[in-house]
Design goal:
Blueprint: H1 17-24, E1 30-34, H2 41-46, E2 55-57, H3 61-69, H4 71-74, E3 83-86, H5 94-105, E4 111-115, H6 119-122, E5 133-137, H7 165-171, H8 175-180, H9 183-205, H10 211-224, E6 227-228, H11 231-238, H12 242-254, E7 258-263, E8 277-280, H13 291-312, E9 318-324, E10 330-337, E11 340-347, H14 356-365, E12 369-374, E13 380-383, E14 388-392, H15 393-397
Parallel strand pairs: 1-4, 1-5, 2-3, 3-4, 7-9, 11-12, 12-14
Antiparallel strand pairs: 6-8, 7-8, 9-10, 10-11, 13-14
Helix pairs in contact: 9-10, 11-12
Length: 401
């Protein structure tokens, strides 16, 4: 497979490095970095270290034993500079122990905490850590990956993409398979990662007796990508109770296996308000013969990354939704900015005529921008009279986060 990007600048900092350093660490708040397994959290966290000895991993047996007995003793040999606590959330009592560490050390040393699950899942119960940390969510590579991400109003001017859309479509955005540029090895990586999520990560969160059923559930999710999520339909296919499947889905969502895009209903008569749409963080899982689903899933990943970055870094309150009414008119994505419709995005393959559904919801919701994405390299046409721009996926997302 041909590598289409330059390898000269692949050591550049990730898009969250500067915000974390200038926001959380500069104000002596803990930085909580969560994200999917193998997305690069540890690599990012280590960039903040001035002393390699200040890296502590829960997966290291000696540290794990010391931390369980006394967090203070586990860190007694620390040196000057930031401390990284990698995957510390796997400790059942991590929050109270970390609170004690922060209260003792936090004013003198910056602390970075990573987790391969949503850390808000583990924050439930016990003493609050409010005001002691800032959460950040790390995403896979995208077309516009760069050290200085753009502000919301700057994403509509195309630039040179960091990673070509066609490579992300085939390999996904996780660092190892994307930078390896080998489709066969990328598929193997995806399979092995999926197995580790079931065998290790699920068990870290909850006691699941029937791991085979969870594995079957994960195997079913790619067939639902970019479609409406029905827990009842999954229950029938898995052969488990509704409560069990719902609980497993919540765990898999917390582990960044999938994410939900929920419907927006304000000002929409007869709007669909219940069922979310399901998308996968691992692009490789979406069936290769389902090109429309693959295009929409990758677009969702780009939009979610940007909206969460702007929100996490206090740039703007942005949220990803979709719109659909009971007449089955639908637009794939709606980005809310400070609670108001800001951007409508419809995903197509080669249809360059503006979608009637996009025109309908643009007229109804009056967002600032309405975009129709097409799988035609270099395509970019504006329809001023309709208020719609039809543009290729790569050209549009090249300037995004």
């Amino acid at each position: 497979m041909t590598i289409y990007w330059s390898t000269d600048n692949l050591s550049d900092v990730r898009y969250l490095q500067n915000p974390i350093a200038e926001d959380a660490l500069a104000t002596r708040k803990m930085a909580f970095i969560s994200g999917p397994r193998q997305v690069g959290k540890t690599t990012l966290a280590k960039t903040f270290l001035s002393e390699p000895a200040n890296y502590y991993s829960w997966d290291t047996e000696a540290f794990r034993r010391q931390w369980s007995r006394s967090p203070r003793d586990a860190l007694v040999n620390r040196r000057e500079g930031p401390i990284v606590l990698d995957e510390i959330h796997k400790d059942r009592r991590w929050k109270n122990r970390l609170k004690g560490v922060y209260d003792e050390l936090g004013h003198d040393q910056a602390i970075v905490v990573t987790g391969s699950a949503r850390l808000d899942l583990y924050r439930r119960g016990g003493d609050s850590m409010q005001g002691r940390y800032i959460p950040y969510r790390l995403h896979p590579f995208t077309c516009g990956e760069r050290a200085a991400p753009p502000l919301p109003d700057a994403v509509f001017t195309p630039t040179k993409p960091r990673f070509p859309w066609r490579d992300l479509l085939r390999l996904g955005g996780f660092p190892e398979p994307l930078l390896g540029a080998n489709e066969a090895k990328a598929r193997r990586w995806s399979r092995l990662r999926r197995e580790r999520v079931v065998q290790e990560d699920v068990r870290d969160i909850m006691a699941v007796m029937d791991l085979q059923a969870v594995r079957l559930l994960m195997d079913l999710l790619p067939t639902r990508a970019a479609g409406l999520l029905s827990v009842n339909a999954l229950r029938e296919d898995v052969g488990a109770s509704y409560a069990s499947v719902r609980a497993w889905m919540q765990v898999l969502e917390a582990l960044y296996v999938w994410f939900a895009v929920r419907p927006y209903s304000r000002r929409i008569a007869r709007a669909l308000t219940a069922e979310p749409k399901l998308y996968l963080f691992d692009q490789m899982l979406v069936p290769e013969n389902e090109r429309g689903r693959r295009l929409e899933n990758l677009a969702a990943l780009h939009l979610l990354k940007a909206t969460q970055y702007w929100t996490d870094c206090a740039i703007a309150e942005t949220e990803l939704r979709y719109v659909r009414d009971k007449e089955k008119r639908e637009v794939d994505f709606l980005v809310l900015r400070n609670g108001k419709p800001w951007l409508l995005v419809e995903c197509k393959t080669t249809e360059t005529e503006p979608s009637p559904h996009l025109l309908y919801f643009r007229s109804l919701l009056a967002p600032e921008h309405a975009i129709q994405l097409v799988d035609i390299e270099g395509y970019d046409r504006r329809h001023p009279g309709l208020g719609v721009r039809v543009v290729s996926y790569e050209r549009f997302f090249s300037a995004w986060v």
